[in-house]
Amino acid sequence: MLTIGVMGLGTIAQKAYLPVYTQMQNQVHWVLSTRNDDKLQQLATQDGLAIAGTTLEDLDAQPLDAIMIHTPTETHYQYVKHFLEKGVNVFVDKPLATDMGQINELYDLADTQHVLLTVGFNRRFAPMIQDLAEVDDKTGVRVDKNRIDAPDDPEHALWDLFIHPVDTALMLAGYPEKPNTRYSLHTGDDGKLQQASVIFTAPGIRGEAGIDLQAGTNLEEAQVAAPSGVQRVQNLDQLVVYGRGGATQTFAPDWQPMLTTRGFQPMVQAFVQAVADPEGKNPVSPATSQLTHAVVADLVNQIKA
Question: What is the pTM of this model?
Fold first, then answer.
């Protein structure tokens, strides 16, 4: 059985990951770590998971096959590098880092150490997004994320929120190697980001990713167009297919767990399987992750210019 450490037990880890880990205890011996000992004891008892301790040294003392890093973005570079240097496979929440030099350095290190470095782009694994990805001969892709009255610091919003629609749009477009990109963004008088978009073109396809932080609703949409028609996914759980004969709508099955619908369960499962298999491929390939990070970094750099 694999031994995998879990570093950081904040809100996202508790909501999106611990329920998945709990269901996979027949495959993995999970060991938890966070600096807050009270939280550590509570969550380990609640979920029936083992405790590594409250320090990095406690995790180092474990015979780890992999580590799941759910700590704040600004700590990712330090912790990812630490475990890669020890030859441990790493899964880390997006973004990997906010500096392309550091991002490329970490991927180079993972390659040198012959270990996995997987970034948590869960929407790639959402069943309905995968349905869109399988549409043949796509000519257009559009992915939008809308939030109600949520203007935010531009750099934080782009790296924390906008990175998802960017990654999904690039995935649906087949990860063009050298897309031609154009960016736009709008900030309020207070300097907070209200809207941003990126348009990219590559041979045979046009893609767009957008975010609106002052929309009147919380809505996430992904759409692909092809000669066969248009298909649109809303909130990862509704699919509408528009064809010449009309439209059909389907919903995620009632019995399907929400964390499967949102891609978290299949993403973690894919990472665990890759760790277990000596020939396992990275479920989030370095090249595609680097492309997504580079597009976001380009837009952030325009803010700083």
Answer: 0.95
